[in-house]
Amino acid sequence: LVGVMDNAFEAQNFLAEQSVDLLFLDINMPQLSGLRFYESLPNKPKVIFTTAYSEYAVDGFSLDALDYLLKPFSFDRFLKAVHKIKPKKKIGDTIIIKENKKLHQVKFEEISHIEGLGDYVKVHLNDKVLITYTSLKKFYLSLPESMFVQIHKSFIINFTKVKYIQGNVVVLVEHQIPVGAKFKSDLFYKLNA
What we know:
By secondary structure, this protein is an alpha+beta fold.
């Protein structure tokens, strides 16, 4: 941590003399909003917007924000946002899914969405469903960030399969999935990226 400022003008003076890797920026600030302030910077550091207002998420991601933290946020959510500054690890194009005593090699592009069922997950493919013994959280870690996003406490979607979003529902080719409020910013970030 190299500095904490109370308003955009203090931050502007600080950034004129000091370079930073990552900027946590509130959107609702006195005199100048965080969005307008960030737009005005000539050399933009990576940014994570923080705010109590979800309606600014799309604007934040249109400025190539790493993430958008909706207040109040947990430490886990904060940590997830900070880890986005690290380079992403390479991942192949398939995953091995164990169902009963069979191992299935599945291409990521075949996965429509994943549904959490307690200690199990239901993996919806183009032509079938596989049920495997693992947590949704653990399964999510094995998926490429460039294709998948968690949109609800019980659902992860392959966002390349999204037909449209209407209100708090994501419509895939054959399924409608609810969007949880705390997952909405991640969804818009991935779709924008």
